[in-house]
Amino acid sequence: MAEIDHRQIDPRLEESEERYRAVIENASDMIQSVRPDGTFEFVNKAWLSTLGYAPEEVANLIVWDVIHPDEYDHCGPYFERAVQGEPIGYMQTTFVTRDKRSIPVEGNVTSRFLGDKVVATHGFFRDVTERNRAQELEARNVQLEREHQARYLEKMAALGKLSAGLAHELNNPAAAIQRASAGLGESLTQRDAAVRLLAEADPGDIGWRELAALLQEIDTSNRGDDAHDPLETSNREMAVEEWLDDHDVEDGWRLAPALVGAGVDDARLERLSDCIPTQSLGTALGWITETLAIHEAVDIIVRSSRRISELVASVKGYSYMDRATAQVVDIHEGVDSTLIILGHRLRDVKVTKDFQRDLPMVQVFGNTLNQVWTNILDNAIDATDGTGTISIRTRRDEDAIVVEIEDNGHGIPPEDLACIFEPFFTTKPQGAGTGLGLDTAWRIVSEEHGGTIVAESEPGRTTFRVSIPIESGAGSSTGVEGDT
Ligand SMILES: Nc1ncnc2c1ncn2[C@@H]1O[C@H](COP(=O)(O)OP(=O)(O)OP(=O)(O)O)[C@@H](O)[C@H]1O
Ligand SMILES: [Mg+2]
Question: 375 in ligand 1 pocket by Cβ < 6 Å?
């Protein structure tokens, strides 16, 4: 124990004092006895070794030399109270070591009296650096675990949304193919029957040629172009139906819409009737309409299967997302794939694209950028209640490619604008948003690609601007293939 006061000790108390001295000296807590004027009466070994002072230096210190200056205001009242004789059951503060390191401590203080006068305050303190560090670490781990869990859930939710959307999107063409192929079988049977009847009726060379010519015309005319005025269509159908009735063609009401749909009007029928015997007219027209139905079914099957292939290609392009490989891509392809994948949510949204298709390719990390487009578009769709306008623009800005996604939704209030990229910030009802969409986008853009992502907003106009360096160095040191 550092002796500071060499008072004369009563010999009768010496043994008892020795005992207490040994206890105090070997205690692991820092123990200090401080006089009311702030000087030290004694300190123990733990105190000296923790604060880095030699025993002889203590005589020149006052208590405020070992308390961090930031803590003076906090400790002053405690010291006053202790000097008044009030015990301090628990306190926390920060000591400073001889080499100016801060040490967080906790402890308690009691007072020693001589008569009714306080002669010293006794403080017992513990260094809580390690404990604080462990607590901080634990809190950080809990936070990390929570973020990890939430990101995982966000990914699963995104996957869920994606597959639900895709299932929906694939269902339409698949159902169309099914319907068309069912109708195809029936039309083939009926056309075979019509061919037999027609062959029996024998429309003659001129008749066959005229029928072939009509089919040819129909094939090259705008079949399926149903942009006609419905009133006009209805008038034409009536005229055709009347014509058919006048020429004793059965089922005129059934044939008329198909013929008008194929661009055949009563004038054209009149010309046909010049080359076909009247009694074969019904059979010939039946043959024509069944042929048309077959063409139409085949057309639906071709278009629907093309749509399915397109969707599958988009998924392939899109779902590359977690692959940690650097690749050189055309940003527009990613945006287009994402738009197809989000097709089910964009049904009532007007999307305008102003793409500079000749921009250089960029080197990116996996296809994670598609997640960026998805998250921004997802928010834009939400902000416009799925019925607004979203404009997507691309351009070059020096050594970066800029993609701007603007929506005409409700906008982001200025007080929220500063927080939107923070993890878990959401203004959506519980269950509707986790608040990780933009945090994920920010990480992908800035951490993985060295780019920037910023938002501007006013009611009716919100723009997210993503800038990706052309040579982002994402995942590789092999350089970019340059302008292609
Ligand atoms: N285009 C936008 N228009 C209006 N507000 C937006 C827009 N984009 C983002 N926000 C605001 O930013 C918040 C954070 O967006 P973020 O995508 O990070 O999370 P979220 O959409 O709420 O949830 P999550 O994307 O995880 O499902 C949103 O809750 C919304 O308030
Ligand atoms: Mg979102």
Answer: yes
